[in-house]
Amino acid sequence: MRNIKITIEYDGTNYHGWQIQPNAITIQAAIQDALTKITKTQTQIIGAGRTDAGVHAAGQVANFHTHSQMSSTAFQKALNATLPRDIVIIDVEEVPPDFHARFSAVSRTYRYTILNRTYPSALLRNNAYFFPEPIDVQGADTACRSLVGVRDFSSFQRSGSERINPTCEIYECRCLREEDLVYFEIEADAFLRGMVRAIVGTFLKLNDKEDGINQLHKILNAQDRSAAGASAPPHGLSLLRVKY
Amino acid sequence: MRNIKITIEYDGTNYHGWQIQPNAITIQAAIQDALTKITKTQTQIIGAGRTDAGVHAAGQVANFHTHSQMSSTAFQKALNATLPRDIVIIDVEEVPPDFHARFSAVSRTYRYTILNRTYPSALLRNNAYFFPEPIDVQGADTACRSLVGVRDFSSFQRSGSERINPTCEIYECRCLREEDLVYFEIEADAFLRGMVRAIVGTFLKLNDKEDGINQLHKILNAQDRSAAGASAPPHGLSLLRVKY
Question: Across the interface, do A9 and B123 touch by the CB < 8 Å criterion?
């Protein structure tokens, strides 16, 4: 059987997240339905990251096995013609049989987008979190960089979804401003559930605190979700890319 | 009475255009309703340009007269708290009594956005027209610049909406590419109904023609709508700004 890797852009606004589940529209289900229609065979896909309801992706990756002899280009065209307009296949590639979108991934990069000005935006309403108080981007960026390395992120893990190993290695973490938009970008080997939104929510809570960076590390060391700030809302988050 | 100028950003996807009409949701109606709620007085607004159904605005301008003593900042906050999230007031300013959003305008600038690559975009699906064949941007830009000046644009006027004077002065017209996006930007003293979409549709029709620029001027000189190409769809169009 051939092993096909697809790269996916989606607007998560109208979906209950990536992962297939009964009685809810999900991205995975929509793509599997389209593949099943195209190949005329029930087809399952494996995703690199499970994005939550309302979270977007610029470069989610998935793979599936198929007997179909369609070319990569033909697969891309057929999928984009079949999928709803808020899910788009931006790349299709045949990969070796052992490629696994989830387990072969070396890192994932998430971006959280904040609209940081006194009034909201009509066009960005579903893709950036409107936060009107001025963000200290330089302070946040310093705090971001202090997170690089291997750490226990229990304090930033959604309650009820505890992983056996709550350790992640952050490869890169930064905060930057482009005009009215402030981005938090985090690249890591793995993420706990709700981790990016909990980190961003905590940054925003500590934004006007003088010793924010110390408080951040106190929260981290507490290894307790209740020590951290509320989660930032899902619509600011996007899975930017997955490296293999 | 005070005269208040507002600058508006909107996502036109879910509206039947700017202008108020019976039995249809319009931008003008939504803003008037919000103002009437806030000022507790029936309030009418005058818009600078009548955008069609599905057309967006980054900087539409309108004005209204009111006895309210609210500050500009308070008006902006109250309006943004009352309006649906796809309409945002980005600026409020008190202006002299004779300011008229439509008649005082010196120029309007429209931008038409095309996604020019082989696959569509989930995030831009309602804000850029997906056109997969490669666009000759340099050729289009030369043709654009040849439109500058005073001309009869009857050939690019929607049938059934003929204006007594079909003459417009184009101040600037250009075509440019930024990665996968191609923009047509047109600044003029006035626009006939459907004019930008008819011009862009004609450019796309002439895209692969060798003597495109000559054909464009033949169409222009015909002063007949049926000589031009089909209109480009509304969702690529945005009223960028209005100058006074």
Answer: yes
